[in-house]
């Protein structure tokens, strides 16, 4: 829990270099990306214009 | 005045003056003040031994910057253990049965550990929300689960202490009432119930000490993660 990971032996390439679950920075980036995605989804649904029901003459 | 089983948990007042403040400051007078003598009396020696042993035990796995929490955590431990133990005496009020008190202790201390973690080592504090070696597909799920568990922590801390102590006191009262009521009707059953009551009281003494220790231990673990 309080120990530091030994991520030095992992050689990641590409996107895995920044987003992985082994190095501390990789884990941090995954967490931040997940929070950003959740915020984006929340904002998308909050700011989506609500469809007005069509008014028909009877 | 007819008493119900929950009257023991009502915050005591006298002519409108809340007595909980008195109940909270009572443990203070029970602890002897440390003196400057080279050799103290038995009680003070025992107290000093207990405090230093406890502090050593709790802070041994924590890094040096966390050691400035020694005073608050050790005094919190003494406070909780004395309140819990005093509450086991008949007709006493136990302040730690009040959720408001336990949440007031748990939330600020937990929040302090989180803020310290975010300020001094934000990468490590955020990295802790994802366990090492998680499979890729499980990463978002686990982050959400870990975030929820992070925010549940103060709630669990407060409710654990409240529920344990309230349940214990209520059980003692119920079984004592049962033993008292059964005495003229079924004396043998009443004696068995009294033996059960004795065992339960011993259990509650243990629970009182353990719950105080668990509260402080968990806070020290949260501190360990963030410091």
TrEMBL record, chain A:
Topology in the lipid bilayer is annotated as: Single-pass membrane protein
Major site of localization recorded for this protein: mitochondrion
The regions listed as transmembrane in this protein's record are: 26-45
What PANTHER family does the database record attribute to this sequence?
A: ATP SYNTHASE MEMBRANE SUBUNIT DAPIT, MITOCHONDRIAL, ATP SYNTHASE MEMBRANE SUBUNIT K, MITOCHONDRIAL
What protein does this entry describe?
Answer: ATP synthase membrane subunit k
Provide one Gene Ontology cellular component. Answer: mitochondrial membrane
Q: Where in the cell is it found?
A: Mitochondrion membrane
Which Pfam families does the record cross-reference, listed alphabetically? ATP_synth_reg (PF14960)
Keyword match Cell membrane = no
From TrEMBL, chain B:
Assembly, per entry: Component of the ATP synthase complex composed at least of ATP5F1A/subunit alpha, ATP5F1B/subunit beta, ATP5MC1/subunit c (homooctomer), MT-ATP6/subunit a, MT-ATP8/subunit 8, ATP5ME/subunit e, ATP5MF/subunit f, ATP5MG/subunit g, ATP5MK/subunit k, ATP5MJ/subunit j, ATP5F1C/subunit gamma, ATP5F1D/subunit delta, ATP5F1E/subunit epsilon, ATP5PF/subunit F6, ATP5PB/subunit b, ATP5PD/subunit d, ATP5PO/subunit OSCP.
Which residues span the membrane? 69-89, 101-118, 138-159, 171-199, 205-223
Cross-referenced CDD domains, in alphabetical order? ATP-synt_Fo_a_6 (cd00310)
Q: Does the keyword Membrane apply?
A: yes
A Pfam family this chain is assigned to: ATP-synt_A
Please provide the record's keywords in A-Z order: ATP synthesis, CF(0), Hydrogen ion transport, Ion transport, Membrane, Mitochondrion, Mitochondrion inner membrane, Transmembrane, Transmembrane helix, Transport
Q: Which InterPro entries match?
A: ATP_synth_F0_asu, ATP_synth_F0_asu_AS, ATP_synth_F0_asu_bact/mt, F0_ATP_A_sf
What membrane topology does the UniProt entry give?
Multi-pass membrane protein
**GO CC, alphabetical:** mitochondrial inner membrane; proton-transporting ATP synthase complex
Highest taxon above the source species: Eukaryota
Q: What is this protein called?
A: ATP synthase subunit a
Q: Does the keyword Metal-binding feature in the UniProt annotation? A: no
Q: Supply the source organism for this entry.
A: Cyprinodon variegatus
**Entry similarity comment:** Belongs to the ATPase A chain family.
Q: What subcellular compartments does it reside in?
A: Mitochondrion inner membrane
Spell out the reaction equation it catalyses: H(+)(in) = H(+)(out)
Q: Which GO terms describe its molecular function?
A: proton-transporting ATP synthase activity, rotational mechanism
């Amino acid at each position: 829990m309080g120990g530091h990971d030994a991520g030095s032996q992992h050689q990641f390439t590409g996107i895995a270099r920044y987003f992985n679950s082994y190095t501390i920075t990789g884990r941090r980036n995954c967490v931040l990306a997940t929070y950003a995605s959740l915020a984006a989804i929340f904002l998308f649904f909050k700011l989506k214009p609500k469809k007005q029901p069509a008014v028909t003459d009877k | 005045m007819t008493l119900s089983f929950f009257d023991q948990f009502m915050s005591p007042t006298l002519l409108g003056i809340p007595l909980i403040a008195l109940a909270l400051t009572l443990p203070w007078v029970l602890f002897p003040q440390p003196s400057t003598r080279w050799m103290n009396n038995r009680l003070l020696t025992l107290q000093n031994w207990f405090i230093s042993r406890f502090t050593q035990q709790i802070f041994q796995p924590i890094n040096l910057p966390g050691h400035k929490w020694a005073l608050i955590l050790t005094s919190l431990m003494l406070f909780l253990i004395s309140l819990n133990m005093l509450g086991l005496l008949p007709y006493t009020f136990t302040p730690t049965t009040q959720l408001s008190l336990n949440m007031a202790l748990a939330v600020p201390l937990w929040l302090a550990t989180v803020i310290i973690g975010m300020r001094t080592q934000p990468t490590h504090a955020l990295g802790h929300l994802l366990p090492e070696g998680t499979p890729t597909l499980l990463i978002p799920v686990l982050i959400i689960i870990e975030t929820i568990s992070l925010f549940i922590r103060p709630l669990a801390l407060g409710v654990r202490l409240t529920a344990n102590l309230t349940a214990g006191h209520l059980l003692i009262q119920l079984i004592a009432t049962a033993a008292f009521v059964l005495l003229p009707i079924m004396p043998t059953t009443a004696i068995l119930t009294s033996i059960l009551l004795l065992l339960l009281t011993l259990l509650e003494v243990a629970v009182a000490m353990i719950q105080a220790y668990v509260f402080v231990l968990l806070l020290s673990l949260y501190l360990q993660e963030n410091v």
